[in-house]
């Protein structure tokens, strides 16, 4: 099982959805929130909203998302973990383009990293952070 103590800061990042059900807004429609987290510190580097009808961010959004993470530590991680259940083909392509190795894992293997962030998000904003 993976654990934050296995990593150094900026060695690996994790992309995950903060909510499990779409967040509903009257003005902008339904959306999901993606987070980019450093695996060692569990610090959320950035987040992005994605329309619920989209499976994943568009290419420009995915590129901006990763570059915002880069701006935090001024370097790319060696590895990007993404839950296998999450649609992320565009994000994978953008990560690989800058030299990041992408590893797809069942979300349960990432729960030690992401559970607290999802719980906090659910408590503050709704959206079903945990089932």
Structure, explained:
- By secondary structure, this protein is α/β, with parallel strands linked by helices.
- It has a single domain, classed as Nucleotidyltransferase, domain 5.
- It has three helices and six strands; from the N terminus they run ββββαβαβα.
- It has helices at 59-73, 89-97, 111-125, and strands spanning 12-17, 23-25, 29-38, 44-51, 79-83, 101-105.
- Strands 1, 2, 3, 4, 5 and 6 form a six-stranded mixed β-sheet that branches.
- Strand 5 (79-83), helix 2 (89-97) and strand 6 (101-105) form a beta-alpha-beta unit.
- Helix 1 (59-73) crosses helix 2.
- The chain starts with 11 loop residues before the first strand and ends in a 6-residue tail after the last helix.
What labels describe this entry?
six-stranded mixed sheet, alpha/beta, 6 strands, Nucleotidyltransferase, domain 5
Q: What is this structure's SSE topology?
A:
Layout: E1 12-17, E2 23-25, E3 29-38, E4 44-51, H1 59-73, E5 79-83, H2 89-97, E6 101-105, H3 111-125
Parallel strand pairs: 1-5, 5-6
Antiparallel strand pairs: 1-3, 2-3, 3-4
Helix pairs in contact: 1-2
């Amino acid at each position: 099982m993976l654990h934050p103590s296995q990593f150094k800061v900026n060695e690996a990042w994790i992309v995950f959805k903060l909510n499990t059900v779409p967040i509903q807004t009257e003005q902008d429609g339904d959306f999901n929130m993606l987070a980019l987290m450093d695996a060692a510190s569990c610090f959320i580097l950035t987040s992005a909203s994605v329309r619920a009808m989209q499976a994943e961010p568009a290419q420009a959004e995915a590129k901006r998302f990763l570059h915002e993470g880069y701006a935090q530590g001024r370097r790319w991680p060696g590895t990007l973990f993404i839950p296998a259940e999450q649609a992320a083909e565009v994000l994978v392509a953008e990560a690989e383009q800058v030299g990041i190795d992408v590893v797809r894992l069942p979300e349960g293997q990432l729960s030690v990293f992401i559970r607290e962030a999802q719980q906090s998000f659910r408590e503050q904003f709704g959206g079903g952070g945990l089932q």
